[in-house]
Amino acid sequence: MNRLQFFLMVLFSALLYSCGGGGQPAPDPVYPIPSDRQLAWQELEYYGFVHFNMNTFTNMEWGTGAEDPALFNPTEFDAGQWAKVVKEAGMKGIIITAKHHDGFCLWPTATTAHSITASPYKNGKGDIIREIADACRAEGLKFGVYLSPWDRNNEHYGTEKYIDILREQLRELLTNYGEIFEVWFDGANGGTGYYGGANEERRVDKRNYYDWENTFKLVRELQPNAVIFGDAGPDVRWVGNEHGFAYETTWSNLMRDSVYGGMPEYSEMYSMGQENGTHWVPAEADVSIRPGWYYHEYEDHKVRSLPQLLDIYYNSIGRNASLLLNFPVDKRGLIHENDVAQLRKLTSKIKEDFAFNLVGKQVLISASVDRGRAYSGSKAIDQKKDTYWSTPDGTVSGSLTLEFKEEIAFNRFLVQEYIALGQRVKAFLLEVQVDGDWQEIATGTTVGYKRILRLPTVKTKAVRFTVLDAKASPTISNLALYEAPKLLLEPELRREKSGLVTLLAADEEVAIHYTLDGSEPSPVSTRYTDPFLVETPTEVRAITVDPVAGLASEMVSYSLDIAKSNWKVVGGGEQALNAIDESDRTNYVASSGQLTVDMGANHTLSGFTYMPVQNRYMSGVIKTYVYSVSEDGVTWRQIAEGEFGNIANSPILQRVGFPPVKARYFRLAARETLDGNPASFAEVGVITAKK
Ligand code: FUL
């Protein structure tokens, strides 16, 4: 080879290399594909929602619009606290309910008098939107606005004039508060007729009334980088439920022209997206950290548990959706301490779960097929989001195999598609090699931006990921494996009427150990295997243990009293048994206002317990009571009466003590209920005197 030939050869190889993959071009996009603003939004993954507005002060979820602006008066409002809490949790922004269905505006709008300007907050000089926007900016968070199209206060709602007003409100919000990352249009719309709002009689044609096309144009003009959320998109769609769960099969493609905001059949038919959807409209999962979207003191003890929050996280972000987690900011204007505490637990567990990507320990990655060097298997693990493994045109399946020098243990599998070229994967398989044989450990359907599987811990030296079917050549930009530590939470105890006790651990792979004699449990205490009977007063103490890691949870102690196996309700029929079935979820409503129980034998009582109904409506919750006992069911003695203090705001288990008294029968009667409805009971129990 002469010098020229050599030079040409070097030039040629360099050219080949720069074209990527031996000249192989990138796969053609599979339409629909995301816009640039959607791509940027997709990477946020996780951001906070705040419901804070008039309803916070009226204890409502949907206000009527007739509320007096004077009621809006937070005492310690601090958007800086919200921003810090959200930032610390790893969330990327905050969306605020600038105006909810009741029409009250959190900023000094020129469009209506029903706003913060008419409230005592900062003597009518306040601007909550400004304070939140500034706080977000100070923490490096994005800021978004929720603006309810449905307005129960505005006198023009239902007419064309209102559409101009709504647009003007939007103009104010999108002009005066800096960069907005998301504009949230709620699908809940007038015409439901349930709540008798100011303009309820003005039913609107949800599909056409709002002239969305022109409203969207305005958003584009004022905030070209903002995504628009609505049931039907256009940029981001509703996941179809308020539990924060996306579907196992979640396409970002949507038949967008077939849906509209507030469409009744949306959740069932469209919210999971469609393989052949015409537009790119990814799902966003919205869910509140408490049962309600707005703050209610009576939900202070109902903040979601860590296992519930983890389910939400994995079932949204892990299923090709983003997560919009709501905080019902309280009357002070702060995210409540209980919510902060639960969020911190979630944050640290997620950090632990994804602390170390085991793929880094791999020695070899091989692809069964690729479309050239620029699309080799290694591109799926190079930690670069713009490179990906892909196959030749027309090849819609193929595998990536990771081999490890030493055995690894993992229980989380994460995979991502290079979505800039469209969502492609329709079916996949995950296998591990055990003793030389491949064993299937999971199968799945869609991947999309991100898919995470939680799996039982498996040990192996080789892992194989196979795309079984795709719309076109798959484009896999990331594969990761993690070993999440076991969830070592205190065991939960459930008891049946018979006295049968079940202990439950949040993580199936941990052991439960317990004692029944009041002593402290340790990993050598009795190991729980099957439900056991507890018929007499007993202290059950338990821990969960991860034997491999040598770790244990905190201890939990349950004080159980006599079993209710022989208990009967005197009168009240079948439904009355709900009050003594050891379940807080089933209720009994007593038209007589009282509950009489025959325990079947005499016991020495030194107190009683009452669990009020645990649903949002709280109908018939007892406020003041009379408690009586009897040995024969004929002669009764009243032994306690009083008030369940603060039960309206804190409907938790009530315990009342009294001097020991012998009784076979007891009667709990309501003197008054909170709402005047017939007394209701989730559960009643007794405290028997210590022998
Ligand atoms: C729903 C609304 O009706 C709720 O009040 C809440 O704002 C939720 C996020 O969206 O459609």
TrEMBL record:
<dbReference type="InterPro" id="IPR017853">
    <property type="entry name" value="GH"/>
</dbReference>
<dbReference type="InterPro" id="IPR000421">
    <property type="entry name" value="FA58C"/>
</dbReference>
<dbReference type="Pfam" id="PF01120">
    <property type="entry name" value="Alpha_L_fucos"/>
</dbReference>
<keyword id="KW-0326">Glycosidase</keyword>
<dbReference type="InterPro" id="IPR059177">
    <property type="entry name" value="GH29D-like_dom"/>
</dbReference>
<dbReference type="InterPro" id="IPR008979">
    <property type="entry name" value="Galactose-bd-like_sf"/>
</dbReference>
<feature type="domain" description="F5/8 type C">
    <location>
        <begin position="595"/>
        <end position="689"/>
    </location>
</feature>
<dbReference type="InterPro" id="IPR057739">
    <property type="entry name" value="Glyco_hydro_29_N"/>
</dbReference>
<dbReference type="GO" id="GO:0016139">
    <property type="term" value="P:glycoside catabolic process"/>
</dbReference>
<keyword id="KW-0378">Hydrolase</keyword>
<dbReference type="Pfam" id="PF00754">
    <property type="entry name" value="F5_F8_type_C"/>
</dbReference>
<keyword id="KW-0732">Signal</keyword>
<feature type="domain" description="F5/8 type C">
    <location>
        <begin position="347"/>
        <end position="484"/>
    </location>
</feature>
<dbReference type="GO" id="GO:0005764">
    <property type="term" value="C:lysosome"/>
</dbReference>
<feature type="signal peptide">
    <location>
        <begin position="1"/>
        <end position="23"/>
    </location>
</feature>
<comment type="similarity">
    <text>Belongs to the glycosyl hydrolase 29 family.</text>
</comment>
<dbReference type="Pfam" id="PF13290">
    <property type="entry name" value="CHB_HEX_C_1"/>
</dbReference>
<dbReference type="GO" id="GO:0004560">
    <property type="term" value="F:alpha-L-fucosidase activity"/>
</dbReference>
<dbReference type="GO" id="GO:0006004">
    <property type="term" value="P:fucose metabolic process"/>
</dbReference>
<protein>
    <recommendedName>
        <fullName>alpha-L-fucosidase</fullName>
        <ecNumber>3.2.1.51</ecNumber>
    </recommendedName>
</protein>
<dbReference type="InterPro" id="IPR000933">
    <property type="entry name" value="Glyco_hydro_29"/>
</dbReference>
